[in-house]
Amino acid sequence: MMSMLAPVRRDRIIAELPQCFHKESALHSRSSFHPQVTGACQEQRTGTVGFKISKIIVVGDLSVGKTCLINRFCKDTFDKNYKATIGVDFEMERFEVLGVPFSLQLWDTAGQERFKCIASTYYRGAQAIVIVFDVNDVASLAHTRQWLADALKENDPSNVILFLVGSKKDLSPSAQYSLMERDAIKVAKEMQAEYWAVSSLTGENVREFFFRVASLTFESSVLAELEKSSARKIGDVVREYLPRGRWDPSQHHHWLRWVTTEQGRGRAPPPRCPRGTLRLWGREQPRPLC
Ligand SMILES: Nc1nc2c(ncn2[C@@H]2O[C@H](COP(=O)(O)OP(=O)(O)OP(=O)(O)O)[C@@H](O)[C@H]2O)c(=O)[nH]1
Ligand SMILES: [Mg+2]
């Protein structure tokens, strides 16, 4: 499927971890990708690191600038006229992270109360939640907690990463912005979200923000997959007891040795091994139970 797609745009290639906006409320402040992620990508363990897509939902009060933020990044456009999103809109953005193709599905949801019901049906299965507020509107910051609570009803809180984004920074004089930032960082810390402030009008921090979203989402999804398969790393020899027929524990200790492969061809593995990842290696002589 990949070969039919055009190559990823040169300005969507991420080779290094982009830095956070504010160290005080960053998801993490490491200067580079997790070493296990870098290693997996370098070795091109395709069983683990294949073509990946992550779903990102963007929520927040009406007119805070969700659509403008996505349009600035995906289309490099800005519309000063407000057109309410009805239900949801969707954009797909392709990246290459550490040499691995990676896409973000960006779900732009409606902030208007009357469309909320439709929009919330699209919340499920998100890898990241982006909660947007307007840095010139204190109420929109206060409402972010409710937006988060609603989005988390449809998602597993331990499996999503969160971003709190202050929009329309261009409209905020710096003294006023500083006051707002203090409160926003407090909320972000409470939520365990990473804080950003952007302007879709000028483009300030928009690209940096989405690169950070892509990088951290990619990193966490690779880490999750590595963790899942850590017991069965490729090349690992796995020993399994396999009682056969009339099994007598004092005499017949049949062992099967399996080696994890990328292709996973061969006979069906024992039930507790993930299908398609193990290959029968051979049968050892019966040996005493130890
Ligand atoms: N000055 C300025 N105006 C902005 C910025 N972002 C958005 N706006 C304006 O704010 C208004 C609302 O923007 P939208 O992006 O449509 O808001 P939304 O959050 O998608 O609203 P809903 O779809 O109703 O939930 C529009 O008039 C935009 O032009 C910004 O960064 N700076
Ligand atoms: Mg919108």
TrEMBL record:
<dbReference type="GO" id="GO:0030670">
    <property type="term" value="C:phagocytic vesicle membrane"/>
</dbReference>
<keyword id="KW-0547">Nucleotide-binding</keyword>
<dbReference type="InterPro" id="IPR027417">
    <property type="entry name" value="P-loop_NTPase"/>
</dbReference>
<protein>
    <recommendedName>
        <fullName>Ras-related protein Rab-34</fullName>
        <ecNumber>3.6.5.2</ecNumber>
    </recommendedName>
</protein>
<dbReference type="GO" id="GO:0005794">
    <property type="term" value="C:Golgi apparatus"/>
</dbReference>
<keyword id="KW-0597">Phosphoprotein</keyword>
<keyword id="KW-0460">Magnesium</keyword>
<keyword id="KW-0479">Metal-binding</keyword>
<keyword id="KW-0472">Membrane</keyword>
<keyword id="KW-0206">Cytoskeleton</keyword>
<keyword id="KW-0378">Hydrolase</keyword>
<dbReference type="GO" id="GO:0046872">
    <property type="term" value="F:metal ion binding"/>
</dbReference>
<keyword id="KW-0653">Protein transport</keyword>
<keyword id="KW-0963">Cytoplasm</keyword>
<keyword id="KW-0968">Cytoplasmic vesicle</keyword>
<dbReference type="InterPro" id="IPR050227">
    <property type="entry name" value="Rab"/>
</dbReference>
<keyword id="KW-0813">Transport</keyword>
<dbReference type="GO" id="GO:0015031">
    <property type="term" value="P:protein transport"/>
</dbReference>
<dbReference type="InterPro" id="IPR001806">
    <property type="entry name" value="Small_GTPase"/>
</dbReference>
<comment type="subunit">
    <text>Interacts with RILP. The GTP-bound form interacts with REP15.</text>
</comment>
<keyword id="KW-0970">Cilium biogenesis/degradation</keyword>
<dbReference type="GO" id="GO:0005814">
    <property type="term" value="C:centriole"/>
</dbReference>
<keyword id="KW-0966">Cell projection</keyword>
<keyword id="KW-0342">GTP-binding</keyword>
<keyword id="KW-0333">Golgi apparatus</keyword>
<keyword id="KW-0007">Acetylation</keyword>
<dbReference type="GO" id="GO:0003925">
    <property type="term" value="F:G protein activity"/>
</dbReference>
<dbReference type="Pfam" id="PF00071">
    <property type="entry name" value="Ras"/>
</dbReference>
<dbReference type="GO" id="GO:0005525">
    <property type="term" value="F:GTP binding"/>
</dbReference>
<keyword id="KW-0636">Prenylation</keyword>
<keyword id="KW-0449">Lipoprotein</keyword>
<dbReference type="GO" id="GO:0005929">
    <property type="term" value="C:cilium"/>
</dbReference>
<dbReference type="GO" id="GO:0030030">
    <property type="term" value="P:cell projection organization"/>
</dbReference>
<comment type="similarity">
    <text>Belongs to the small GTPase superfamily. Rab family.</text>
</comment>
<dbReference type="InterPro" id="IPR005225">
    <property type="entry name" value="Small_GTP-bd"/>
</dbReference>
